[in-house]
Amino acid sequence: QLQLVESGGGAVQPGGSLRLSCAASGFRFNYYAIGWFRQAPGKEREGVSCISSGGSDTKYEDFVKGRFTISRDNAKKMVYLQMASLQSEDTAVYYCAKGPYSDCVNYANDMKYWGEGTEVTVSS
Questions:
Q1: Which of 1, 25, 77, 112 is the most exposed, fewest CB within 10 Å of its CB?
Q2: Cα-based distances in Å from 68 to 1, 31, 42, 85, 113
Q3: What is the per-residue pLDDT across 18-76, written as a single tens digit (0 to 9) for each?
Q4: Contact, 16 vs 73, CB < 8 A?
Q5: Closest CA to 39 of 48, 31, 27, 30
Q6: What is the DSSP string of 77-124?
Q7: CA proximity to 9, closest of 17, 108, 1
Q8: Residue 59, number of CB atoms within 10 A of its CB
Q9: What is the DSSP secondary structure assignment for residue 31, as one 8-state letter?
C-alpha cells in the first residue's frame, strides 16, 4: 500500500529553520518525482518544490527560492525539505506528494497521492 508520511513540523520563530521529512513506502520510490506542497489557513494548497526521481533536477516556487532546499535519499526512500529564514507567511500544513512521472515539469498539476501533512507555524 502506497504511503507518504510527513514529519518534522513544529513552531518556530521568524528567521528560524526546520527540516521536514517525507517517508515513502509501497511503490518504486526511485522511479518517481516527489513534490512538497503547502496549505495555509483559508488558502488553497500550492506547490512549493519538487525533486526528480534521481534527484538531479529540482524545482522551487519563487516564494521559497534561496530559502528552501529539497533533497532525497533513494536508498532510504526519504525526501527532505530544509527550510530556512522562515517567515510568518510560511505558516501552513506541508504535504509531500507523488505523481506518475519521474520529472517535475508539471509537478503542481501531476500529483495523485498525498500524505497527511505536517504543520509548520512561524510566529514570534
A1: 1
A2: 30, 23, 23, 8, 22
A3: 999 999 999 999 999 999 999 999 999 999 999 999 999 999 999 999 999 999 999 99
A4: no
A5: 48
A6: TEEEEEE-S--GGG-EEEEEEE-S-SS-TTHHHH--EE---EEEEE--
A7: 17
A8: 19
A9: G
